[in-house]
Every structure is written in C-alpha cells, then in structure tokens.
Amino acid sequence: MSFESSCQDPILPSDTKHILHHGLSVFTAALFITGEMAGTGLLALPKAMDQAGWYGLISTFVLCMLSGYSGIRLGDCWTMLREMNPVYSEEGSRSPFQVIATEGAGRIGKYVLIFVIYFQLLGARIIHQRCYQTGVVFLLLAAQNLQSLFDAIHAHLPVCIWIIIVAALLLGPCWLGTPKDSWPIAIGAMVCTAIACVFITISTLIHYRTIQRYEPSTVTFKSFSFSMGTMFFAWGGSAMFPTIQVDMRQPHRFHVAVLIAYSILLVFYLPVSIVGYVVYGSKVQDNILKNLPKNFLRYTVEILITGHLATAFTIVLNPIFQGFEELTHVPKHFCWQRAVLRSGIVLFLAFMAETIPHFGAILAFIGSSTVSILGFILPVVCFVMIKVHSTQLVHEKLFETIFRVLPKWDITLLAIALLVGLYGALASSYSSFSDLINPTSYVKPCWLNSSSADEKPSNLSLF
C-alpha cells in the first residue's frame, strides 16, 4: 500500500469528490493547522533547546516528522470511515474525532477522547507561572500580555479585569460556525505568528551585539525530560485536525495540508529556537520575550502574540463548540441557540480563569499528558484498528491482519510514534510534577483578591 493510495476516497467518483463547493482549500486548511499550532509554545522553545542542547535540534525534527505522520494517519482514519459509510461523505460530522475514536477503539476510546479533549479545554502546561495550551490559558495569556502593554503606557489594570474584557471581545468571533466560516481568522493567526517570529529573531540578533557570551546549560536527564515536555506541546494540536478535514473541499487530500503546515511550522520554530539558544545560552528565560530588550520590537511581538491568542482561541475551541451543539441538538445554521451555548462556554472559561488565575498545578500535572494522547497515541491506535476492521478476514487474528495490510515501514513508524507518544506523556507529567508540589503554584481566586493573577510589577515604559 503506497502513501498516496492510503489517502484516496474510492467511494466517490472522481468528478464528485468536491463535496463542499464552499469548503476549505488544501492551502487554507494548512493555514488553519499552522495558526492553531504555532503561537505561545514557540516562546518556550529556546529554553527547551538549552535544556536539551543540540540534541534538541534532533528532537525537533523527529517530533515534527512523527507528529505530522500521526496527523496524516488521523486524516486517513476519516477517509476510511467515509469509504465505509456514505453518510460521512454526504453529511460529515460535528464531532469527527469522536467518531474516529469510537470506530477505532470502541466505547473506551470514545470516553478517553471526550475526557482528554474537554480536560484540555481547561488543562495547561505551567512553566514558572507562564502557561501554554488551550481554553482558560488563552484568556490568561492574552490578559497578561494586554496588562504588560498597557503598563508600558502607565495605564494599569489587574489581569483579573483584563480576563473579563478579553472574554467579552471574543464572544462575537466564537459564534462563527465551522472552520470554513472563519478562514480569515486562520490567516490572521498565522500572519501574527509569522511576523512575531521574524521580529523575535531580529531583536535577538540585535541584542547579541551588546551582551556578553553565555555558555549553554549542562544537559541532564531531568533537563532533557523538561525539554521534551515543552516540545511535545509545540508540536501538539491534532485534536483540531478532523474538524478541519471535514470542512475541506477535498478531504482525501488532507495529507497535503499537513505537509504544507508542518513545513511552515519548521520555518517558524527553527530560527527562534536556534538563535535564542545560541545568543542567550544558559540565561535564556522560559519565555524568550523576557530576554529581549524593552523596545519597539518586543512590544510589537507582544501585540502580535496577543493577536494570535485572540484568533487561535476560536479555532482551538471550535471542536468543543460543535461537540456541545451536537449533544444539545443545536441547529447547524446560525441561530440564537448557538450564540447562547457558545457564549456560555466562553463565560465559563472566564469564570475558571478568575477562579484559578495562575491555574492549578493539579490540572497542569494531569493535562500535561493530553497532547501526547491526542497527537500520537489515539491516532495510531485508531488508524490500526479501523484498518483492521475494514480488511480483516474471517478467523484472522489481529496481528496477522496488521502484517498483511500494512507495509513494514508503516508498521515501524506507527510503533515509533506510539512509543514516543507514551514517552512524551511520561516526560511531560514528570516535568510538571515540581509545580504540583510547589505551594507557590496555588493562589487566591480573583474574586477574593483582584491582583492575584498579576505578576510582580515592573517599571515598563514605551517612552
């Protein structure tokens, strides 16, 4: 079985494959993937490089390849289901990942996926009070960035107030239906990240001329585990993939969108990672913006990252929105029920952000493994099981079918992706354990202390 043939859609004649005449093109789908994955995670990559040394560069390419491969196989799952059930070809699904998990791993897979996805809505990765991931954390990061920017012009507001403002501003964009209805948002997210990467690299190189040389940190098993945990988050995001694929004009070409997106991500990640590591060495911060001089470039990057957070918020939460709408039988067209339901979810996230402003270390510890489960483990398991279910002969055993229908190179990559995913889950949980036992990770909610979400004040000024 060739790579290309595994992505074909033989159930439809060649002249009727364009099911969604107003759906996403391959390139637009790639922009959605890029805009959803690239963002705040890249700010921690220079630190991850310092923790892993130049081995981090190898890890970057390996994780890029395996994450992309797993994403392609996740897309193949949906393609196979469309071949087996014409309903999915004609109507699609609001919760395609849930359908894939159910068909591939049964009720256990379904409930594991539901738990992981909805926990990731709240879950986060905490790196010395800097949060990276989805849901609540997007609100927190956007609020923190806005506070930093307005503090620079001496217009201070607590982060707790900014959370409410950001949530209110994001209500409208969240009412857009599916990815095909919000393609300008995907373009905005990617453009913000692209310009931010260029400005970070330029600012770092300019700063290099005025600072002393710093030696890199010594690489240990613990530091390497921390590094891998961060890199897994940078290459996570496949929970959104099936939702994007369903909205494509040619869903069977999703693999092309993944290849384009991951090529763009490498272009974003490598300069920031390498330049930040070489210039700052052991002095690189968990968030590289803290290393940059306080000038126009840094504040511009903060604005761009905030723009990315605002646009990516609606992209990342779209599968959650559609899942709840499927559960509550909300019509697929725009209606007041959609507006009420999605507004309620956003307001719930804002309430959680106000209640746990620095985000609970317990949630971080449990949520740290969700990216590995969604990005590596479930796609591999579901692809293998759906392939077996669709091709297994009578009285044929599982492994006999696997070795009959899959080439050896495919089995090897699937096994490596599964093992790396398991390692990533353990490494991420291990690296977040220190936050779990650190008393400073727990703070009072905003409604008891309006400044509890604030970091230590700094004398910032644009002038």
UniProtKB/TrEMBL annotation:
Boundaries of every Amino acid transporter transmembrane domain copy: 23-394
Superkingdom as given in the UniProt entry: Eukaryota
Pfam families attached to this UniProt entry: Aa_trans
Record's keyword terms, sorted: Membrane, Transmembrane, Transmembrane helix
GO molecular function, one term: L-amino acid transmembrane transporter activity
Protein's cellular compartments: Membrane
Membrane-spanning segments: 20-45, 52-72, 108-124, 156-176, 183-206, 226-244, 256-279, 299-318, 362-388, 409-430
GO cellular component entries: vacuolar membrane
UniProt entry tagged with the keyword Iron: no
Bilayer topology term: Multi-pass membrane protein
Statement: the UniProt record of this protein carries the keyword Repeat: no
InterPro entries linked to this entry: AA_transpt_TM
PANTHER family xrefs: AMINO ACID TRANSPORTER, AMINO ACID TRANSPORTER TRANSMEMBRANE DOMAIN-CONTAINING PROTEIN
Listed name of the protein: Amino acid transporter transmembrane domain-containing protein
Organism: Rotaria sordida
